[in-house]
Specification:
heterotrimer, A mainly alpha, B mainly alpha, C alpha+beta, A: 66% helix, C: alpha+beta, four-stranded mixed sheet, three-stranded antiparallel sheet, 8 helices, disordered N terminus
Chain lengths: 405, 227, 276
C-alpha cells in the first residue's frame, strides 16, 4: 500500500510526489456550484421549451413556472464566480476584452444575452398582467415596476396577444440552443484542458449538458410537488407521468455518457487510465464517485424511474417514487460536479501523486457561502410568487382592463 | 383611449434596446485599456511591457558590478580562483540589498558605476550579511542571539559567529558529497585521508574546543578556495 | 511491328527518327520520377522546415516600439546541476515570491529497481539533505532537475485566458499583466507543467517571467546569474555565437512533456527518461 492508501502510484512512483504548485486546489466549491446553477437554468428552460416550442401539451400548466424558476436560478448563476475571482471588481473585463480563444471568455456575452432572452420571454407572457396591475393602480414598488414594464402601452388587444405569442415562440426556439450554449460551454471549458486527464474528453460538453437538463428537470419537479402540497392543490398527474418519462430518457443518456468516458479510458489503458484509475479508487473519489455518484445516485434512480414509467402504479405511489428519484438525481448532479471539478485537480501534473482535498467551511469560497448562494434562487422565487401568478393565466382579465382616466 | 397598434409595444422595446446598446458600446470602449493590441492571436495590453520594466532588479548581472569599484582586490583574486563562476550575490545576498535598492541606478547593477556619494554612504553601511541564508538559519540566528546549530550535524556544533555559520552552510550545501551531484563536481566525502573534512561533516572537531570556528574556513578562503 | 517491352528494348515503331516530337518513354518516365522526387523532397524539407520555423516563431504583428529584437531561449543542463538551490533563493528574493508557491524549483530523483523516488522539499529552497539510509541503499542513480515556466510557443495558458491578461511577448516571454488579471485560475489549470499559481498575496495569476524586468535591459534572469555550475543558461537564438544557440543547434536536447505539443522554449540537455 503506497501513500494515501493507494495500491500503486502512477509513473513507477515510490512516494506520492506532487508538484510544489499543485498542492492547492484552486477551483473549489464555488466552481462546483456554478455549473450546477447554470445547469438548473438550462434544465428548467428545456421544460418550458418543450411546452412552448415542441407543444408537449402536458407541460403547458407548468410552462410559466419553468420559466420563472429558470429566471430565479439564472439571477444567481454568476454569483459563485464573483466569489471565486481573485479580482472580482475586474469581472467587467470579460465584456471589455474577451479573448475569444478561451471558452470562458464567451461567458459574459452568452450569459448576458441569455438572461435578456429569458427576460424578454417572461415579459411577453406577463405583459397583460403588468398592464392589468398598472391600470388597477397598484401601489408601492410593485406598482412602479408594473407601470415601467408596460412601456406606456396600457391596453391589451387580441392582435397584440397574437404578435406576442409568435414572438415568444421564436424566443423559446432561440432560447433552447442558447441555454445549451450557456451550459455546454462549461463542459468545453473542462473538456479542452489537455493537462488534466480526468477532464480532457470531447464528451465533456454533452455530459455536462445532459446532467444539466436532468438536474433542472428534477429540481423543477421537487419544487412543483412542494408548492402543490403547500397550496393544497392536486398534482397534475398526466403532466407528472410525461415528465418522468422525459426525465428517464435524459438521465439514461447522461448516465451512459458518463460511463462511456470511463469505459474508453479503461479499454485504451493509456495515460488517462494511469492517473484516473488511482483517482477513482483513491480515498476521496472512491466514496464520492463510486459509492456515491454511481452506485447510490445513478443506478438506483435509473432503475427507479424505469419502474415508475413502465409499471402501472397508483397516483400516490407515483408521486412518492418520483420525488425520491428526483431528490437522488438532484444530488447525483451535484456529486458529479464535485467529482469532476475537484477530482480532476487531485491528480498532480507530476503524474506521480495525488492531492487530498479539505473542505473549507468559512471563508469566501466556503460551504456556508455555497449554501447561501444555493438557497438564494428559492428565496427570490418565494418573493416573486407573492406578486405574480405562476400557475394561473397571466392574461386573465387583461383584455377588459382599461387605463383609469 | 384608442387601441394601440399590435406592435406598438415591440417598437418601444426596440427603442429601449437601441438606447441600451449605445450605452453598452460606450461603456465597453471606455473599459478597454488604451494600448490594447486588437489582434486575437496577440491579445494583450501593449503598455504592460513598459510597466513590467519598472520592477527594480535586486541581483547584479555579474561580479563586475561588485568588484570594480568597491572590492577590487578581492574581485581580482576571485576572478582567478576556482570559484570565478560563482556570483557574489549567491553567497552574500542580492547586491540591491547591500546598497539601498531604491537609490541604486540600474547602471550600478549592470556595470558597477557608483557615484562618490554612494561610495561614501556604502563605506558607512553595515557589512553585508549572507542573505543567501536558508530560512532556518536566519530564524535560529535571531532566536539564539547569534548562535547557530547547523542542521544535519551529528553533534551540535555551536558557532558564535553567525556570518561564518551561514558561510559554512553554503560551503556544505554545494560541496558536501551527495548521491545526486554529478561525479565531476568537487565534493567532499567521508575519507580517512581527509580527517579534517570528516570532522566538518560529522560535526565532531578533533582537538578543537567547543565554540571555535568550523574547519573549512581555517584552510579555505571562499574567495580563493584552493588551500 | 512490336517487340515486347523488356528491359531496355523498346517498341521500335514508336521511336521517331528525327529529333522533333521526340518522346522517349524511358526518358519521360525517369523525368517524371525525378520531378516527383524533387517535389516530394522539397515538400518534405520545406514542410517540416516551415513547421520548424513556425514552431519557434515569435508573435508577429506587434507594433513598434515593441517589436522583437531578440529570440530568447533557456537551456538547462542536468549534468551540471548540483541541487544547491541558489536559483530558488534568488528567484524568491528577486521577485518577492511568497511562501508555499514557486516560480522555479528543483526536483531530486532517485532511481531504484522498485521505482522512482521524487522529492522537492520546499522546492529546494534550502537545498537538499542526505537521503535516509534505507532509500540510499536501493539507489541506482540520482540527479536533480530544475523546473521553471517553459515559455511555450503554443502556450495553453495564453489560449485559455478569458481576458487577455497573459500573453506571449514579442521576444519569447510568456507574461502576466497584473493590472488586467481577474484571478480566475483557468491558466493555472491549463498549464501542463504546474508552473503557474495564484499569488496568495496579490490574488492574481503568477509565474516565472524569465525576470522580464532584467532581461529587457540586457541582464540575465536572477536564477541564471546565481547558478554556480552553469546548469542554467540564457541566450538569444538570433546570436550564432551564443552558447545556447550552439547547444540548440547540436540537437541533443529534450523538452518536458513533448506529447502536449506546447513547443517549449526551455531545452534540457541530459534529461533522463524518468523526468516528467
Amino acid at each position: 500500500m503506497g501513500a494515501l492508501g493507494l495500491e500503486s502510484l502512477p509513473g513507477d512512483a515510490m512516494i506520492n510526489y506532487v508538484f510544489p504548485n499543485n498542492e492547492h486546489v484552486f477551483w473549489s466549491v464555488m466552481i462546483v456550484i456554478y455549473p450546477y446553477i447554470t445547469g438548473l437554468v438550462a434544465g428548467a428552460f428545456v421544460v418550458s421549451g418543450l411546452s412552448h416550442v415542441f407543444k408537449v401539451k402536458e407541460f403547458h400548466p407548468i410552462g410559466n413556472f419553468a420559466l420563472i424558476a429558470a429566471f430565479c436560478f439564472g439571477l444567481f448563476a454568476a454569483v459563485p464566480l464573483l466569489f471565486h475571482l481573485g479580482q472580482p471588481q475586474r469581472a467587467y473585463e470579460i465584456y471589455a476584452t474577451p479573448h475569444l480563444t478561451s471558452a470562458m471568455s464567451i461567458f459574459g456575452y452568452v450569459y448576458g444575452s441569455y438572461m435578456v432572452v429569458l427576460m424578454l420571454e417572461i415579459w411577453l407572457i406577463y405583459r397583460p398582467f403588468f398592464i392589468k396591475k398598472a391600470n388597477e393602480g397598484a401601489g408601492g414598488l410593485f406598482g412602479l415596476i408594473c407601470r415601467v414594464l408596460t412601456l406606456g402601452i396600457r391596453r391589451y388587444t387580441p392582435e397584440a396577444a397574437h404578435v406576442d405569442h409568435k414572438f415568444a415562440t421564436i424566443l423559446a426556439g432561440i432560447g433552447i440552443p442558447w441555454a445549451f450554449t450557456l451550459h455546454g460551454y462549461v463542459g468545453f471549458i473542462f473538456g479542452s484542458v489537455k493537462s488534466i486527464a480526468w477532464w480532457a474528453t470531447p464528451l465533456q460538453p454533452i455530459i455536462f449538458l445532459m446532467s444539466a437538463v436532468v438536474s433542472g428537470m428534477a429540481m423543477l419537479m421537487l419544487m412543483y410537488c412542494f408548492l402543490m402540497w403547500k397550496r393544497k392543490q392536486p398534482i397534475d398527474m398526466p403532466m407528472m407521468r410525461k415528465f418522468v418519462a422525459f426525465l428517464w430518457g435524459f438521465f439514461i443518456l447522461d448516465f451512459v455518457l458518463e460511463m462511456l468516458e470511463i469505459m474508453f479510458a479503461k479499454y485504451e489503458h493509456g495515460h488517462h487510465w494511469e492517473v484516473v484509475y488511482p483517482l477513482l479508487t483513491g480515498p476521496t473519489l472512491k466514496y464520492s464517485f463510486i459509492y456515491g455518484q454511481v452506485l447510490t445516485l445513478s443506478v438506483i434512480p435509473v432503475v427507479l424511474l424505469g419502474f415508475i414509467v413502465l409499471k402501472k402504479m397508483s397516483d400516490k405511489m407515483t408521486i412518492l417514487w418520483t420525488n425520491i428519484a428526483c431528490f437522488l438525481l438532484v444530488m447525483q448532479v451535484l456529486f458529479m460536479r464535485f467529482n469532476v471539478v475537484i477530482g480532476g485537480q487531485l491528480i498532480s501534473k507530476s503524474d506521480r501523486g495525488f492531492v487530498s482535498y479539505q473542505f473549507e467551511v468559512l471563508g469566501r469560497e466556503g460551504l456556508i457561502v455555497a449554501c447561501g448562494i444555493l438557497s438564494a434562487p428559492f428565496i427570490v422565487y418565494f418573493i416573486l410568487s407573492r406578486f405574480i401568478p405562476i400557475f394561473e393565466d397571466p392574461a386573465a382579465g387583461a383584455y377588459e382592463s382599461e387605463p383609469r382616466a | 383611449m384608442k387601441k394601440p397598434s399590435p406592435t406598438a409595444h415591440l417598437i418601444r422595446l426596440a427603442a429601449v434596446f437601441a438606447v441600451g446598446f449605445v450605452v453598452f458600446v460606450t461603456a465597453k470602449s471606455l473599459a478597454t485599456p488604451a494600448t490594447w493590441n486588437h489582434d486575437m492571436s496577440n491579445w494583450f495590453r501593449l503598455k504592460s511591457l513598459d510597466d513590467m520594466q519598472t520592477q527594480v532588479p535586486a541581483y547584479a548581472n555579474d561580479n563586475k558590478a561588485c568588484a570594480r569599484e568597491c572590492h577590487e582586490k578581492i574581485g581580482k583574486m576571485f576572478n582567478k580562483s576556482m570559484h570565478k563562476g560563482v556570483s557574489c550575490d549567491s553567497c552574500h545576498g542580492a547586491l540591491g540589498d547591500h546598497i539601498d535598492a531604491t537609490k541604486v541606478e540600474l547602471e550600478t547593477l549592470l556595470k558597477g558605476k557608483f557615484s562618490d556619494e554612494q561610495k561614501t554612504s556604502l563605506k558607512k553601511a553595515a557589512a553585508p550579511l549572507a542573505y543567501g541564508w536558508p530560512a532556518h538559519l536566519q530564524a535560529a540566528h535571531e532566536k539564539n542571539g547569534g548562535t547557530v546549530v547547523p542542521e544535519g550535524a551529528a553533534v551540535p556544533v555551536i558557532v558564535k559567529n553567525p556570518v561564518k555559520a551561514a558561510v559554512m552552510w553554503q560551503c556544505r550545501n554545494c560541496h558536501l558529497e551527495m548521491i545526486n551531484k554529478p561525479a565531476a563536481f568537487k565534493q567532499f566525502r567521508l575519507d580517512p585521508k581527509f580527517k579534517k573534512h570528516n570532522a566538518f561533516i560529522s560535526g565532531q572537531v578533533e582537538g578543537q574546543a567547543e565554540g571555535q570556528e568550523i574547519m573549512c574556513l581555517k584552510c579555505h578562503d571562499p574567495h580563493n578556495p584552493t588551500p | 511491328m512490336t517487340t515486347k517491352l523488356k528491359g531496355l528494348h523498346m517498341n521500335k515503331a514508336s521511336i521517331p527518327v528525327t529529333g522533333e516530337n521526340y518522346s522517349d518513354p524511358r526518358r519521360e518516365f525517369l523525368k517524371n520520377v525525378l520531378a516527383g522526387t524533387a517535389a516530394a523532397t522539397v515538400l518534405m524539407a520545406s514542410g517540416p522546415g516551415v513547421a520548424a520555423t513556425k514552431k519557434f516563431a515569435l508573435p508577429e504583428n506587434i507594433p513598434d516600439p515593441y517589436k522583437a529584437k531578440h529570440h530568447w531561449i533557456y537551456v538547462i543542463n542536468i549534468n551540471n546541476c548540483i541541487g544547491c538551490g541558489n536559483c530558488v533563493r534568488a528567484c524568491k528574493r528577486e521577485n518577492s515570491v511568497p511562501d508555499t508557491v514557486f516560480r522555479t524549483w528543483v526536483e531530486r530523483y532517485l532511481l531504484t529497481n522498485e521505482g522512482v523516488y521524487v522529492e522537492s522539499p520546499k522546492g529546494a529552497l534550502e537545498g537538499f539533505e542526505h537521503y535516509n539510509e534505507e532509500i540510499r541503499k536501493k539507489a541506482i542513480r540520482s540527479f536533480t532537475v530544475p523546473k521553471l515556466c517553459n515559455h511555450c510557443h503554443q502556450p495553453p495558458c495564453v489560449q485559455v485566458c478569458p481576458v487577455g491578461a497573459t500573453f506571449k511577448a514579442p521576444e519569447g516571454h510568456v507574461l502576466v499583466d497584473w493590472t488586467h488579471c481577474i484571478g480566475c485560475a483557468y491558466c493555472v489549470q491549463a498549464c501542463p507543467y504546474a508552473v503557474r499559481f495564484i499569488n496568495p498575496v496579490e490574488h492574481k495569476a503568477d509565474k516565472c517571467s524569465w525576470c522580464y524586468h532584467r532581461t529587457s535591459k540586457g541582464m540575465r534572469p536572477a536564477c541564471v546569474t546565481v547558478c554556480p555550475n552553469k546548469a542554467r543558461l540564457w541566450g538569444d537564438m538570433n546570436d550564432n555565437e551564443a552558447e545556447v544557440t550552439k547547444i540548440f543547434n547540436e540537437g541533443q536536447w529534450m523538452v518536458l512533456k513533448p506529447q502536449m505539443h506546447t513547443d517549449p522554449s526551455v531545452f534540457y540537455v541530459g534529461l533522463p527518461k524518468e523526468v516528467i
